[in-house]
Amino acid sequence: MEDAHTVRQNMTHRKSISFFGIFDGHGGPAASAWASKNLHKYVDELKELTDEELIKAVLQADKDFLEQSPPQATNGSTACIALVDFSQELPWKVTGINVGDSRILLGCCHYHHIHHKNPLLTKDHVPNQAGEKRRITAAGGYVARNRVDGNIAMSRAIGDSRKKNNPNLPQLQQEMVATPDIFHSQLHANDFLLVACDGLFEAMEPRAIVDFVEDQIKKSAASPSQILCKLLDKCLEGGSNDNMSAILVLPVATVNA
To answer: pTM of whole model > 0.90?
Structure first.
């Protein structure tokens, strides 16, 4: 199992912000395990949670991990994080941080809320995207079967030192990088967030996953963990062969919907 996760309902220095992170590892568990134990600390220690500072924090975390990794190490990890600021009344502010191909979905138990027509909040970092492919090939790599050098399915990750060890290139121009996308959204009453690795999406489309979770919330008294168990079982039945990890985030108002 190469997946790892982090749940901090109250961060150390920011008591009104929760940190929910999924880390889908490849090439071994070292990168995902390290990220799950440490990445929240880099975020928590920031003076300001601006987009620029969050990007710097993730890049510094990646640099620190690489410094302790062998130059040809094959282990890497996604980093998909939802920061939920509950310092005020609902709706709560959501800041997303994404590196790789794990995903954050936003769902709502009231279908008339038009702000959830597209439940997918994140964008996958994959090698066949034009900008990603240009960087990979400029660094001396290639894309085959939509994989970096024919073997890594994502174009950005924490770790993967063997794809980041060109001494003639800066950090942001290596074959693979850890530059995160930052996005902002809101969590309303009757909403939920799902942070999940790509194993779920092998079997179900984002809209189908959100519809399934919405249906479980509305029709049963199941706990979030029970709902996730049912969701993962459905993905297994649908043919997923990958590791699967997910975090379901529900405001109290949603639980009582």
So the answer is: yes
Contact criterion met (CB below 8 Å) for 107 and 119: yes
3-state secondary structure of 55: helix
9 Cβ contact partners less than 8 Å away, ≥ 6 residues apart: 18
- How far apart, in Å, are the Cα atoms of 57 and each of 44, 104, 167? 10, 20, 22
pLDDT digits (tens, 9 = 90+) for 197-255: 999 999 999 999 999 999 999 887 788 999 999 999 999 999 988 889 999 999 865 55
Of the CA atoms within 13 Å of residue 140, those in its CB half-sphere come to 9
Residues of the chain with confidence (pLDDT) below 50? 112-115, 256-257
Please, what is the end-to-end C-alpha distance for the chain in angstroms? 35
Domains (range + CATH), the chain: 3-255 (3.60.40.10)
pLDDT at 56: 98
Angle formed by the axes of helices 206-219 and 224-237, nearest 10°: 140
Whether 38 contacts 84, CB under 8 Å? no
